[in-house]
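Question (not urgent): is this output format expected?
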Amino acid sequence: MSDPGSAPAGAGAASAARQWLMRIRRLPLSRPVRIMNVCGGHERSIAQGGLRSLMPDGVELIPGPGCPVCVCPEEDVYAAIRIALDHDVTLVTFGDMLRVPANVAKGEIRTLEAAKAAGADVRPIASPLEAVAIADADPARTVVFFAVGFETTMAPVAAMMRERLPDNLLLLLSGRRTWPAVAMLLASGRPGFDALVAPGHVSTVMGPLEWAFVVRDHAMPCAVAGFSADSLLAAIYSTLRQIAENRPVLDNCYAGAVRNEGNPTAQRHLAAAMSIVDAPWRGIGVIPCSGYKLRPEYAAHDARPVFAEEVEAGRRRVGEMPPGCACAEVVLGRIYPTGCPLYGTACLPRQPVGPCMVSDEGACRIWWSAGARRDRERDRRLEPACK
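Got this back:
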């Protein structure tokens, strides 16, 4: 479906965005349409660019499960905190994970940031190679890499593993795959959306054909988008046109970066280093085939059996969201961030209660940063149709 996904001839990015918007407004839509975007980067571009406010009446853009920090199992966060506090190790992880709260009793240490303040050796990193460098710098000290992320993050972690793992580097792996969460929503019979904007970065790694099931199995329009306004609007136009013409297809509106085959090298690294398993998502439950696990040949670097007591610790509210937190409903696209009762009151970026207010890929943090405050009328519109 090349016409919807191709930019207007001779247009710069800003001009192309305006033209896509005009095309959207000309479409003959006979009913309201809800479009879910999976990627946190997409939601950030939509919110910061004000794209939601530019949509015609009846077209809603709904944030979906695109934040790995938000869905990282609470028990993994808790295990990382206890490993850092109770053992003489260096724990490294990507920066956002330092502020994700675990469910613990009042007064207990609930984040890796607080564990660091209490004296634990916790360090933020930006790249898996930093974990290797830290381990190399002190070979006598155990370094635990709490590796959290979707396919785009897991691919460089896998590449690091295959290139060289220092003997003193262990991995607490908490990687997730994006498409199974969407498949779970669609199979539920109440997805709450009519079309899907698929994630561009994940598609550059895994290829867009991972999303073919949306069209094939559910007859739902789907378009892969990049992160600029013109690419997002092209994808929105594509899905709306598909609905108007009753002709669902998988459209690639990020053709400059996304190829049908994806990135074969990254895929080989993932397949060689990690196996695919059923995995829990925070507040949501276990989603089939949605997680990554170290392959047996890397068992010597698996932190889970080494710190089995911390990993398997039984607690009353393991895996749940904090009381009153609706992050899971936000992640599933069932409410807008402003529909959470804690949004903007108890839960703020400087004092997050739920994980969606922590990361710059979390919908709550994105909406707050973009100036969105509580809107009872808007929240009421979304909720009934998505129950």
